[in-house]
Every structure is written in C-alpha cells, then in structure tokens.
Amino acid sequence: SQPVRLADYRPPEWLVDTVELDVCLHPTATSVRSKLTLRPNPEGQAGAPLVLDGDELAFVSFTLDGAPLDPSGYAVSPTALTIKNLPARPLVLEIETLLNPSANTKLMGLYRSGKSYCTQCEAEGFRRITYFPDRPDVLSIYTTRIEADVMEAPVLLGNGNPVESGPVAGTSRHYAVWHDPWPKPCYLFALVGGALDRIVEPFTTASGRTVELGIYVEPGKTDRASYAMDALKRSMRWDEETFGCEYDLDVFNIVAVADFNMGAMENKGLNIFNDKYILATPETATDVDYARIEGIIAHEYFHNWTGNRITCRDWFQLCLKEGLTVFRDQEFSSDERSRPVKRIDDVRVLKSHQFAEDSGPLAHSVRPDTYREINNFYTATVYEKGAEIIRMLKTLLGSQGFRAGMDLYFERHDGDAATVEDFLTCFSDATGADLRHFTRWYSQAGTPRVNVETRWDKTARTFALDISQQTLPTPGQPVKQTLTIPLVVGLLGPDGSELPLIRSDATSNERSSGILVLEGERACFTFADLPARPILSINRGFSAPIELRTDLSTEDLLFLARHDSDAFNRFDAAQTLAMGYLVATAAALREGKAPADPNALVAAVDSVLADHSLDAAFVAQALSLPSENDIAREIGHDVDPDAVAAARKGLRQVLGGRLAPALIAAYERLAIPEPYAPDAVSAGRRALKNGALDLLATARAGDGIARTVALYRTADNMTDRLAALTILTHAAPQEREAALEDFYARYHDDPLVVDKWLTLQALIAEPETLDRIRTLTRHPAFSMGNPNRVRSLIGAFAAVNPSQMHRPDGQAHAFVADTILVLDRSNPQLAARILGSFRSWRQLETVRRTSAENTLRRIAQADNLSSDVSDIVMRALG
Ligand code: DPP
Ligand code: ZN
C-alpha cells in the first residue's frame, strides 16, 4: 500500500449531512441499507467524482435520487464505490450491502463477540459496514434502525437517544431506532445487539438534566459492573468541575464485550469496552485492575468533548484527541487517588513503553507526517508522549492560562474536525504566549537527552546550572532541532529544607520561578544568595519527558531519596541509584566479576521504608526496581538479557536479605484482616505489604515462602491471592505447580482470571517457559480467536519476558513469529501488536540480534502479509 502523507491533505469533495441506516442483523447475512444526503463541499474541488470507501464489502444495489444508475456511470469493488459526472448539487444516495458478521475475525466493522453483535469503527472500520467517505472530517447526523430476532438480540443499542422500538409484525423480529443529534465522523458510529443484562442509574448534570446511565454485560455478570458505574459518575462530575464539560445526550450506554482488539472505544453515547476494563469484583479483580477500570472509563467518557464534540481533521491528528484525553484521565486519577503515586505510575509506563519505542526503529513523532497503516499508530508515543506535551503546556502556561486555552478550544472548535495547530492557537490566543518553538514536540521523534552540570561558588554563594540538550537521530529524521524543555527545580539545604530560589540571571518576573525553560542547545541558570552548597532537585514531577543526566553524586542521590519534598524525585533518586547498580552489575556479571556495591541503594530504600509518614503506595513504588526492559534500554547496546535478569534478581535478593527486619515489620503492620475495598489507600497498603513479602520470599528471608503460602490460602481477594501466586511462581519453584493447579481449579470458569494465570506462566524467567507456552496454546482455556487470551499468553511473553523471548537459540523468536503469521490471517491488528515486541531488537548482543533479524526477515518474506504486519516489519528492519 502507498503511504498516506499529511502534506497531501485535501478537504473532502463531498459532505454527508445525514445518514439513515437500516441494519437487519443476521449471523451470516446482515443487510445494511444506507441513505446518505450529500452535497458538494464548497471547500472541495468542483466536479470531482464521488469516491466512497469500502473494505471487503458485498455490494447489493444502489440508487441515486431514487433511481438506478446506468452501469457505465459508476464502478464498484469490495474496496470502493466510485460515481463519476455527478451534478454539483445536493443528492440522495441509497446503498445496500450484505455482511457476514460471524466470519469477521478482524474485529473491525460489524462482528460477533460470543452471541452478541457489536461494532468497532475506529480508525477505518465503518467502510466494512457500508460504502462511505471514511475520514474523520466528514461529519453527519445519524439515525439508525436496528432489527434482529427478538430471542437472539433482545437488546438493540445505537448512538444517541432512543426514538422508538417495537415488534416487526408477523415475524419473530423486533427493531429499535436511535437518533444522534450531534454531527459525528463515522469512526464514532456503533451498534450493539444481543442478550445482555444491564445496570442503570440516573445522573443529574450540572445544569440539572437527568441522564440515564446504562452498563450492559453478559447475562449474570451485572454484579461485576458496579465499580465501573461508580467510576463513570465520578468522571462525569469531575469533567464538569474541572473543565466545565457537561454531558449532552439523554442516555449514556456502555457495553462490555469479551472479544475486542483495543481497551475500549468512545463511540458517541455508546461506548464499547473490552470486558476486562468493566468487570470487577474483589474476588476476581486486583487493585491494579480497579485502577485501570477507573482510568479507562474516565478516558472514554472524557472523549465525549475531546474527540467527539471536537474531533480530528485527519488521522495524523490522532494525538489531538488521544494525548489530550490521556492527560485528562491522568489528572482525574490523580485527583481521585494520590497525585505523586499516579505520576510515578505514569512515568514508569512512559519510560517502559514510549521511551523504548522512541529509541528504536519504530520511533515516530507524536504527530506523524506519513503512515502506511493507521492502526499501527495507536502507540505509546501518540498517547503517552502526547499527554506529556499537554502536561508541559500546562507547566509553561500555569493552571489558569491552561484552563483559559482549554475554554477557548471548546468554545471555538465545538463541532469541528480540528488540527494540532487549531488547538495550540487557542492557547497562544488565550494567553499571548508564543508557542511556535514548543510546537516542535509534535513533529520531532526521539527522547531528548538533557545534561546538567552544576557549579557551586562558595565565595559568591551562587549555584550555576549548565544545561544542554541533544536528541539523537531517528528513522527519517537525521538532523534534530532543539526543543522547549520546562524543568521544574528545587534546591535543598543541608538539613533537607527547601531553599529560596533567587535567579541572578533572570528578568524580574522569572527571578523566583522554580521553572527553568531550556530552548536552545545550552543555557546557564544561576541561583544567588545561597547560605550553603545546595543539592539540586531537577525535573521535579518529571516536568519534561527527557533522559536526564546530572552530576549528582551517589551521596547527593541518597540525600534526595531521604529528603526531597518532591515525592516523584524522591522516588526517582532511589531508582537512579538502583539503575546505576543494575547496569554496573549486569556488565560485571558478563565479565565474571563481582556485583557492584549496593550500599547506597539499600540505605535509600531503608530510609523510605522507615518513614511511616509516607503513603504506603509510594513506599511500595520505592521497593519496586526498574524492569528488565528498562535496564536493557538504559544499557542501550550489546545487551545480554540473561545478565540483566541475573543482576535484577540478585539485587532483589540483596534488598530482601539486608532489609528483612524492616520488611517483616511492614508486612506484619499491614497484614491485618480488613474487609476488601478498592480505594487507593487500601490498595497502597496491600501493594506495600505484598511488595515486602515478595522481597522477603525472593531472598528466602523472614519465613517469606511460608508466609506467602499462608497468604495464598487465606486471601479473601484477588489482589492478595494473585500476589501470593506470583511470588510462589517466581520464587518457590517447588510450590509452583501445585499453586498454579489450585488457582486454575478455583477460577477456570472465569476467562479474565484465567488470563492472569496465563500471563503468570508466560513470565517465568526459565528455559522451560517456551515449552510451557506451547503446551498452554493447546489448553482448553486458550483460544487464538480471543485477543485477551492471545495477549495474556503470547503477547506478555514476547513483551515482558526478555530473557526467554530472546533465548540465544532463537527458538522463542521462531515460535512468536509463527504465531504472528498464523494470527495475521485472522486478526492483523493483533498480529501487528505482538510483532511490535521486536522493536528493541537492535540493542541485543550479536547472537540474539542476528536471530531477531533473521526472524524479522522471514516474516517480511511471507506471502500475503496484511498491511498491519508488513508496515511494522518493514519499519523494524528499516
Ligand atoms: N479511541 C480509543 C481510545 O483510545 C482507541 N481506539 O480511547
Ligand atoms: Zn482514547
């Protein structure tokens, strides 16, 4: 397929004002009749043919203004319906297509999940339902009639508000009509039909309107939807209070389905969710699951304004809705939970996914300027780095300036298909700020490296920071520009107190600001009137998404880990110490030398553990080391994943052994029976308790294993039981098989819990794991047809078990590649996702790198690759 280029954007030739759909659901022969009112776009090119997109469509018939057209006047294929020589005036086009939803394994367009019918149209799935100008800048008002067998699909849902429903006389069928008054692009279209149960609750909006909120689930699972409902109501209130965004329909429905390629989808008034992000009870979901459900419910709801009321002009602008909406859901979770802990979580995700993507062959800018397959751009860069850009914007403009820009954006662009430029212009217009240099964050790929050197002048009592930035080349971008980098700083005195910031280099209104803005390649910032040499705390709260290098000594980092008032940097100082140790030890192990000296890190973690004023969730984060993938990225080249795994495991044993008394104390203090509640404080206590137990068991200290066995048996919630099972699986091979068997026996009826069981086994860092996975692919609980099962077993293995995925014999590479090629025939999006796990292959040592490269070449040479897989494999090799 030819690449699509941002520079080639042209307005649509034809607009579609209204769409009337009539969908008669049938397992293998669903008919779709579509009536479009079209008119020439005044901004389009006059006299252009009308080209409607299709994808694997079976054309039945069409009429123009009620009459059939001579076959010489149009061309139709499964991928397009083209009509030439149309008069430049409003027209009515009626088209009928025929679909087989049961055969739709791509899970794009209309498909079946279990016995239900559902749709997924983002990005380009609507063209798999009917011929249509499938692009986000064509906005239409939709009326949808859905008809189905009343037994098969007693529930019929569409976008917007329900209009009417009833039986189809003389048949076993019934129908429902839905009308959505808000013009929308077709990627936000959805319908659902099935035998579903629901919970329903009213919500009163800020202006006093009542909205009926419904969550639909498989029969018998309504008791698992109450947390999602609670999160939805809190999200709706938060968006009113924080951004003045009120909901705009009479109903808001969410449907949970078991087969879904993504997490969830923000279809107007009818969100469709992967059921793993709806269903939760204390017995089946962990604290992490609850937090994700809350975050994704909020994310999809927030799209109603950032995505739906204001949508994207074209798919290059995907970050306009995604980065902004991720930022909004992060802020919501920060307000609902603990802001510093949420920030630590988000930065961990950013580094492990986005930084990894940005430093390898799949690096791309937040707003790419070309793509071959848009499905491959739902990435950590577009989402998470996109959110970081919004966060920096807020840091630079301040809360009030940021809110003023958002208000103007909603006011000016409501109803538009907008661009990143439109968005940024609102902020410069609202605040007077010049954002031209800042805009580079959207177009330049790669993580900037920022270097900080400090100079303390005892006589002058000044402290100077020499700061420089550099971004390494990425594919297609050999030469990099400088970026606007906002660095939040603090200076700590010898007793750990915050020193006043007096900038001697700055203009009067910047003099006491704790935000240093680097725009050029290098700059010097000087602080004056200091009583003693300060310790620098910089990039507080991770104010810029950068790789930071400083000249802070081990003692300085230990000091920050003990005293920094910025909780993120306190955590980060300990992580930096850990990373330094892990990188040095991985190198030493490869050369057969002794591990590095862990004393500073042990002291840092010890002081965090001893500080009972800290949030338990924060302490749990401090106990948790950088992942093997994070360490590999830090090493950057010639990586031996076995050495990395050994270094990390060794450090966990050191921490568990040396800190045993404090860990035992923490465990015992927190292991008091209390009824389960998923709130952040209780979750934090469990995270610390189980984190302490994990280190003890790993070190075989403090009766860690016996305590874990007991926890597994007595746990009354999934968080504790899964934590115990995880520890036993990794740290107690002799307990492993019995525990895994017991877990499966307890939960085999619950696919979402079985997923946890699959993932746990996929992540065992032992050579037997590959065979175990092969065996599990034949297990009755596994299915290649269900994306959650595939991601839980094979996706998890490929992405987060680096020592086994990159076995030097190449067998795991071969297995994963074979799986990808099989999957590509049924579900290319899922296949391409898993292939993305090869993204860091170039950093491996020679033997493993050669195996990865050969494997990628074999995939590239396979016949009939989807555009999804061929795009990733070409770029990965590129
Ligand atoms: N737009 C969805 C989301 O990120 C993904 N398709 O919410
Ligand atoms: Zn989204």
CATH topology of the domain at 4-195: Immunoglobulin-like
The fourth-level CATH homologous superfamily of the domain at 4-195 is tricorn interacting facor f3 domain
Q: Which term fits the overall shape?
A: globular
Biggest pleated sheet: 7 strands, mixed
Distance between the termini: 16 Å
Structural class: alpha+beta
Low-confidence stretches: none
**Percent helix range:** 40-55%
The tally of helices reads 26
EC number: 3.4.11.2
Pfam families: DUF3458, DUF3458_C, Peptidase_M1, Peptidase_M1_N
Family: Belongs to the peptidase M1 family.
Domain Peptidase M1 alanyl aminopeptidase Ig-like fold: 446-550
Q: What keyword list fits this structure?
A:
alpha+beta, seven-stranded mixed β-sheet, binds diaminopropanoic acid, Immunoglobulin-like, 878 residues, five-stranded mixed β-sheet, Neutral Protease, domain 2
Explain this structure to me?
With about 900 residues, the protein is α+β, with helices and mostly antiparallel strands. Among the domains are: about 190 residues, Sandwich (Immunoglobulin-like), CATH 2.60.40; about 130 residues, Neutral Protease, domain 2 (Orthogonal Bundle), CATH 1.10.390; about 80 residues, Immunoglobulin-like; about 130 residues, Peptidase M1, alanyl aminopeptidase, C-terminal domain (Zincin-like fold), CATH 1.25.50. Helices cover about 40% and strands about 20% of the residues. The protein has 26 helices and 30 strands. The strands form nine sheets. Strands 5-8-3-2-11-14-13 form a seven-stranded mixed β-sheet, with no helix packed on it. α3 crosses α5. It is globular. The two termini are about 15 Å apart. Bound molecules: diaminopropanoic acid (DPP) and zinc ion. Diaminopropanoic acid binds next to β19 and α2.
